[in-house]
Design a protein that fits this description.
This protein is an alpha/beta fold and about 400 residues long. It folds into two domains: about 1-140, Rossmann fold (3-Layer(aba) Sandwich), CATH 3.40.50; about 145-340 and about 390-395, 2-Layer Sandwich (Dihydrodipicolinate Reductase, domain 2), CATH 3.30.360.10. The chain contains 14 helices and 18 strands. Strand 8 and strand 9 form a beta hairpin. Helix 3 (about 65-75) crosses helix 4 (about 90-100). It is globular, with a radius of gyration of 20 Å.
Length: about 400
């Protein structure tokens, strides 16, 4: 049915292409482009060996809009899947506008020189995409992505209105390294070390990073400490569900991980400000990224599970109710299926689903949209079908923290 161009050749991209290769009647032609051609070749080889399907590969520097335009024109895809760095979102969106190509991504834009991510830059493209009859779907990963769909699904099927939303992200995986990140180290560390921020009583409340800690008993995992953070889906969810009075994002971290982050931050290795080393300006965090384990190498050694979901309290027929919707994903099962750990899997599958819904015109409307603005039911059905089944339970009482 469709020709697609995937930009970026990291762990998420590998999962997405494997899942698309399982559906050759929908994704009839797949091209993978990246600055690092060797990574493209590795994915190409694995897909060929497993599914006997050939994907095309190209070298691409997505920092260069003109180069990106040339590659899109060469491939002539229906849809560009942006699985590159979030710094490159606007460049790729510009290239899609120039070439009249639809667009989808998993993470919102942030400037390279400032650890600040928000949707406003991409939302500003809405009129441009509308005028050209093009669609851009933002944040079709897990969080953001599936958690947004869970919110829309809970509102549609279980509640008349939402009072409070908590997104809980637990990774209980063990990769055996003293310290490693489960996705791009540069993006991960920028996110983790940022100030916490949550929505309460019609305003944002901020605080120091990784200080607000609570314990939660996760299904099939058990009690884990989780920390209040800021995450981009909060921004779009409070916009599209304006009745929400409180919205928070929580993520689990082990003590060893936090100690490493503390030390690295204290000695300046998490900084994004250039320093001069032997006459060369380098970014400490980018240097750190080069010496940490490649997240793509963690799959074969990671054991354990993830549990990501939403706990939502609201009103139904003038009665307060609380619903917990979640997915549990096993690292080893993911590796056996697509050669990846669960963090990449839980992002790679949803972006494939978002692309499928756009290609089939089930989710399709010119403009720039977040996933919660569409009917959640087709997305939920496909999550259950393609590896990320969800479960919804009604809790006896709302969260007490």
């Amino acid at each position: 049915m469709s020709n697609v161009l995937v930009i970026g050749a990291g762990g998420v991209s590998a999962v997405t292409i494997h899942k698309m290769a399982m559906l050759p009647k929908i994704f009839t032609k797949i091209t993978l482009a990246s600055r690092t051609l060797k990574k493209c070749m590795d994915i190409q080889t694995k897909v060929k060996e497993k599914y006997n399907i050939s994907i095309n590969i190209l070298e691409l520097d997505a920092d260069n809009v003109n180069y990106t335009v040339d590659v899109i024109k060469q491939v002539n895809p229906f849809l560009v899947l942006n699985l590159a760095l979030p710094y490159q979102d606007l460049n790729i969106m510009d290239a899609c506008l120039i070439t009249n190509t639809h667009y989808i991504d998993t993470a919102n834009y942030e400037p390279r020189d400032e650890a600040k991510f928000e949707y406003s830059w991409q939302w500003d493209y809405k009129e441009k995409f509308q005028k050209k009859g093009l669609m851009a779907l933002l944040g079709s990963g897990f969080d953001p992505g599936v958690t947004n769909v869970y919110t829309a699904h809970t509102k549609k099927h279980f509640l008349d209105s939402i009072n409070s939303l908590d997104i809980l992200d637990c990774n209980d995986g063990d990769h055996g390294h003293p310290f490693a990140t489960n996705f791009n180290p540069e993006i991960n560390i920028r996110e983790v070390t940022a100030s916490s921020k949550h929505w309460e009583n019609n305003k944002w409340k901020t605080g120091p990073a990784l200080t607000n800690k609570v314990s939660f008993n996760f299904p099939e995992i058990g009690p884990k400490n989780m920390y209040l953070m800021y995450h981009e889906e909060l921004e779009s969810l409070i916009k599209h569900f304006p009745e929400i009075k409180k919205a928070r994002f929580w993520m689990t971290f082990g003590d060893s991980y936090l100690k490493h982050i503390e030390v690295l931050e204290n000695i300046g290795m998490t900084s994004i400000k250039p320093v001069n080393y032997n006459g060369i300006n380098i970014i400490p965090l980018q240097f750190l990224k080069t010496i940490l384990p490649d997240p793509g190498s963690l799959g074969k050694r990671t054991k354990g599970k993830t549990c990501i979901g939403t706990i939502i309290t609201g009103q139904k027929n003038n009665t307060e109710k609380t619903f917990y919707t979640f997915n549990i994903c096993d690292h080893e099962e993911c590796y056996n299926e697509v050669g990846s750990q669960a963090i990449s899997y839980t992002t790679g599958v949803p972006v494939m689903i978002g692309a499928m819904l756009m290609i089939q015109k089930i989710w399709f409307k010119p403009g720039v949209w977040n996933v919660e603005q569409f009917d959640p039911d087709p997305f939920m059905d496909l999550l259950n079908k393609y590896g990320l089944p969800s479960k919804t339970i009604e809790l006896e009482e709302k969260l007490d923290f």
